[in-house]
Amino acid sequence: MGAGMSVGRRGRVVVAAVVTCIAIGGAGGVAALAASADVTTAAYNNLRDGWDPNEPALGPSTLRSPGFQKLFTTKLKGSIYAQPLVWEGTVIATTEKADAYGIDAATGAIRWQRSFGTAFKSSTIGCTDLKPNLGSTSTPVIDPETGTLYMTTRLETGKKGGKMANAHWFLQALSASTGEELPGFPVEIQGTPYNTPEIPFNEAFQEQRPGLLLLEGVVYAAFASDCDINPYRRQTKARWPGSGRAAAG
What we know:
By secondary structure, the chain is mainly beta. Helices cover about 5% and strands about 35% of the residues.
């Protein structure tokens, strides 16, 4: 099924049925959209408070003006549960088909697209909260210093689909501008938590729903369950992209 989001003049993004962009004030509004502030993490900042510092500019008079209108609609493949991000005039959307898209924020044209493989199917684990695919659910994060997009994917990598043993989690790293994969990636997410070494990470029964967090050069990914189906565990994985170090807790 198609899925997507709406994009406002200041880069605000909201999940909807298709990718839809709102223009304000005709051509001037389009230019302002392209130059608007980047959105590099879930809920705008690491506090996850949803505060957009540019929100006061989107007042009632602006919303009632004739120039406030839909600019474009772009259809993508797969459901979208992640918050789309914005980087230097490109809207980035990730889908449950395990795909990522870079979309021109002014025209809606797809600048780049990357597919990571066969998405894990919800029917394999028997959870129908999200269906039919569970390829990439959480909101990615962009490193504003390097323009690198980090995201997680849940893929079936075995020769025969539909088996729990074929489920594998990966951390992907792309150029947010071009969609090119960075050297050394993807990295399979594995390991044993340092505080509970007797409980290793179980790739088949873990779901990664919370948005990724980039803090002091470390990418954090939190995991829990699909429909509370055991034997899942609540775990957090950390990755130092530059050094290749990883940790679990």
